[in-house]
Amino acid sequence: MRGYRKDLAYIHDAGHSGYVLSAAPGLFRILRTHGIRRGLVVDVGCGSGRWARELNQAGYEVIGIDQSAEMIRLARRIAPGSTFVNASFLQVDLPECDSVTAIGEVLNYRFDESSNRRSLLRFFRRVYRALKPGGVFVADLAGPGRHSGKGPATQCAAGRDWAVLSRVTLDEKRRILCRRITSFVKAGALYRRGEEIHYLHLYPPAQIAADLKSSGFAVRVLSGYGRIRFPKGITGVLAVKPAGDRKP
Length: 248
Known about the structure:
The chain has helices spanning 6-16, 18-33, 50-57, 69-78, 117-130, 205-214, and strands spanning 40-44, 61-66, 83-86, 97-102, 131-142, 153-158, 162-171, 176-187, 190-201, 218-222, 224-225, 228-229, 234-240. By secondary structure, the protein is of the alpha/beta class. Strand 1 (40-44), helix 3 and strand 2 form a beta-alpha-beta unit.
């Protein structure tokens, strides 16, 4: 199952890029605090490449990975200085790098049918092996508190030439969030309608921290990136590979 087809990829870039752009100063502060002022950043779930462009402009090399071919198409135009790969982050090989980032609930999505806690743990171990000693993994994830209330919730947003309506439901027992998304993009005098369904695993923050620690990382839980605070149900993690670990 692939998500973010052409219209929804456009809407996401046009209407939701502000999150990563607002987070960028805090993310740069994390990198620089850990001595990463240059080098290679692997951005998983890179979307339309807005964070990759910020990184390029600051002097970093970037490899972006995303399962959406339309997002990759946008990213190659927006951040031409980066390299982009159209693939699942759970399946692609990770090169040796200085940092790995996953911004915006990337690790929760079930676009890859193999997505579950076990596959995410394997991914953490691959990230650990790919990072240079002292390298950092920064991510934010949705947890069980992401959807409040017992029943469905409706969310909507609109821009100059687009609108989107989402109906959000929660399988509390399985900890799976479902977003049924209806999109409208202006096409001439009319609007083109599209439909997508996105499923997200909701992971308890303590569980994610424990899995990262078992992979070898020193872990700190984040409440935001710099001045940007996470919304309810979102938790960030900063996982650092010990500087003394020289094993491949």
